[in-house]
Design brief:
247 residues, alpha+beta, three-stranded mixed sheet, 6 helices, 11 strands, Tscrpt_reg_HTH_GntR, DNA-binding, GntR family transcriptional regulator, transcription regulation
Length: 247
């Protein structure tokens, strides 16, 4: 990784440095290889460490780098394409590779934005099912599925207040519904502490937030908020299935 003159570059220094670093990642580093520390990189390129950090953060945002606890900054593998169509976001309770795996369930007061989408009072408890999505043993996403009681009336007869059994019962009842449609939004966000731990990321790391509103019988019957790792995932939309394709 050689040096370069940045003083006369009209664009922001960190942006040009990001391009130079990206070229170096392609030509000099292998996937998983650890980069030199910030002090060494800053000295090599003749930039302030603040400028270097901006460039590294941008490369992380673009999925070229990963910051790993206790390891450092490493070269990231290519992103995988993750289907988020009906099949990928289905409610089948499975444990196979590249599928949503149910973790637990409980009753909670929904976040204000979720309550708004559900058209319910924020103080009214709803069922919350927590699921994770894995690929080759690595976490790709964590999902919280919020379901109002009226969407799963048959659940009242099930004497399981919380835990995995309750979560599976909620999913089983949801599968009885005939969905009329769904509405999805995607936005860039930062990993909260609990999401970061579940996804093996650092708090504040870039994530993709996919919010899905499911409609049946003319009303919203469930809202899912899925947090995807922005460094490893490339979201694809449609009903092509669950397969993860190399990015």
């Amino acid at each position: 990784m050689g040096t370069t003159q940045l003083e006369s570059v009209p664009e922001p220094k960190y942006w040009h440095l990001k391009t130079v670093l990206s070229d170096a990642l392609d030509s000099e580093f292998a996937v998983g290889e650890i980069l030199p520390n910030e002090r060494e990189l800053a000295a090599r390129f003749g930039v302030a460490r603040a400028t270097l950090r901006q460039a590294l953060e941008q490369l992380e945002l673009e999925g070229r780098l990963q910051r790993r606890r206790g390891v450092g900054t490493t070269v990231a593998p290519p992103r995988v394409g993750v289907a988020v169509g009906d099949y990928a976001h289905g409610w089948t309770d499975t444990s196979g590779e590249n599928t949503w795996q149910t973790v637990d369930g409980t009753e909670v007061a929904p976040p204000a934005e979720v309550a708004r989408l559900l058209e319910t009072d924020p103080d009214t408890p709803v069922h919350r099912v927590r699921r994770t999505r894995m690929s080759h043993g690595q976490p790709l996403a964590a999902e919280l599925l919020y379901v109002p009681a009226e969407s799963v009336p048959g659940l009242a007869a099930i004497d399981t207040p919380s835990g995995l059994a309750r979560a599976r019962a909620v999913l089983r009842e949801l599968r009885r519904l005939e969905l009329e449609g769904r509405e999805q939004t995607v936005e860039l966000g930062s990993a909260r502490a609990d999401d970061a731990k579940e996804l093996d990321r650092l708090p504040g790391a870039p994530v993709l937030l996919v919010t899905t509103r499911y409609v049946a019988q003319g009303r919203t019957v469930a809202v899912a908020v899925a947090t995807y790792r922005a460094d490893t995932c490339r979201l694809t939309f449609g009903d092509a299935g669950e397969e993860l394709l190399a990015g």
